[in-house]
Amino acid sequence: MKGKAETVLRIISAVCQFYYASYSATSLYLGLTLTIPEYCLEDPNLLQFMTYLMLFVFGNMMGNFFCIIYKSKLSIVKPAPNASANFAQLPTTNTTQDYLSSSLSASESTYSNAFHPKNSGTLLNNNLRETQNQTNTENTLDSDFKSKNQLSNYERTGVEILGGWQRCKDCFVLTPPRGKHCPLCKHCVLKRDHHCYFVGHCIGFHNQRFFVCFCLYGGLGGLYSLWLTSHYLRVHYEALQTWGRLAYVGPFALLHWALGYTSGANLGMVMFWWWSLVTSLMGCCYCFGQILLVIRGQTKWEFFQDKFTYRGTLTDNIQSVFGRYWPICFFLPAPFLGYVGDGANWDNLFSDWKTH
């Protein structure tokens, strides 16, 4: 990625993160101190319930936000620590097979807990036993790497190694099927879906479940604030009696305030109403989009490429993202729950892979 484009994207990411932090703080403060007390008036039981509801929604949103960050490092594809081969160097024709064989051998290590992987980011280039044990390894290597010119061509396009594994042309590590390189994070990510600007990290195999729930509670929190703010304005915003729904439009609200017909506080609440509307729409759209991808068993890249590189049952697709105890994820951010699979090896994997 060119320097200017990367700088622009980083600025966008910083703005999005500020947007999320400022809206969350503002919404929580106004809800607890203004809109909820106004709605409940003298009903203490209702006040307590709605206060706890807001804390539950925003607590889940924040919990999933931090889980996205915490789990993102597990999806980083790292080179095998004991690998002696330098993937940035191009081997000669006579040593191609030995070069790759030694790389695969040096990358092999053990991994015994597929349900709850530990340090998955470093295991990826170590988990090649199935690939290495294929009977046609030598033939595949010979056909994929016949000459130095073909390897040089990889510097532009990337080359598939075995079983969907590829050597990344940007960070020069062996990347498993469905892994992609992020130009902002500067590394490959397991089952990369996209780079989230609101969180500042990539969404991949280990944190997609938290991103789905983050979007869900972000949308619900926005709708909750929108509903409470609408009730507050119906009571205190005089312009609604004159202009009707047009009073929510920015220029009308600004004119009403400039003429002294309403207070600056009411003008601020009108702006916050729009803020909540935009936030709720973004959260709901992202959530529905992610749920669609989960059901279809696709990443965002695969969806826009119209590719079904992995096809499992509906249960397989759900558990692949949320784990076996998936209902818990929608009520509690649970980073201690395990995973089904390791994010590197996929059953029912199709072979029509494009390069990074």
From TrEMBL:
Belongs to the DHHC palmitoyltransferase family. One of its GO terms (cellular component) is membrane. The DHHC domain is required for palmitoyltransferase activity. The keyword Membrane applies. InterPro entries: Palmitoyltrfase_DHHC (IPR001594), PFA4/ZDH16/20/ERF2-like (IPR039859). Its EC number is 2.3.1.225. One of its GO terms (molecular function) is protein-cysteine S-palmitoyltransferase activity. Pfam families: DHHC. Keywords: Acyltransferase, Membrane, Transferase, Transmembrane, Transmembrane helix. The lineage of its organism: Eukaryota, Metazoa, Spiralia, Lophotrochozoa, Mollusca. This is Palmitoyltransferase.
